[in-house]
Recover the amino acids of this structure.
């Protein structure tokens, strides 16, 4: 019996064969999807949701830096730098989940936790807000865990 990640890879191959029907299947490159890190797991979950007809996107709550530094050379040939680097915090809600999805018309928020990573207090508060509003909040540690949830809830109906 194939593993959930093997099922996802086969779904992706079928999608690519359908998208590019003029390319012979043996020449169509399909990069293997893995779930060996938090980033890969996030990408795998998003890919699976999209391939099954849902909508999913990664949510980034990190701020950004604005670099206004300029380097110039003075008349003596010395290189000088002026300006600064400024950090701008994110406008997103603190504790937002890693993935925001809509599956069968239902709002799903998915928090990816890898290894010893644990939910913060801000994330727990965000989870409570989502569930109070009628949404679904998941904490996913492995692709198998997500796939089992999907099969149990979404194949029947949420």
């Amino acid at each position: 019996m194939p593993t959930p990640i093997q099922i996802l890879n086969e779904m992706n191959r079928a999608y690519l064969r359908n998208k590019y029907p003029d390319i012979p299947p043996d020449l169509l490159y399909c990069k293997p999807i893995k779930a060996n890190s938090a980033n890969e797991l996030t990408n795998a979950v998003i890919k699976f949701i999209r391939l099954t007809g849902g909508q999913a996107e990664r949510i980034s709550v990190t701020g950004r830096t604005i670099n206004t530094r300029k380097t110039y050379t003075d008349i003596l040939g010395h290189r000088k730098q002026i300006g600064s680097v400024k950090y701008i915090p994110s406008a997103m809600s603190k504790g937002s989940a890693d993935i925001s999805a809509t599956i069968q018309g239902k709002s799903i928020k998915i928090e990816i936790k890898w290894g010893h990573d644990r939910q913060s207090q801000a994330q727990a508060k965000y989870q409570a807000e989502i569930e109070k509003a009628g949404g679904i909040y998941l904490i996913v540690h492995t692709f198998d865990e997500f796939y089992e949830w999907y099969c149990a809830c979404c194949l029947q109906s949420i």
User: Anything to note?
Assistant: Strands lie at 55-58, 64-67, 70-73, 79-82, 85-88, 99-103, 106-112, 136-140. The mean pLDDT is 91. The longest helix spans residues 4-19. DSSP finds four helices and eight strands in the chain.
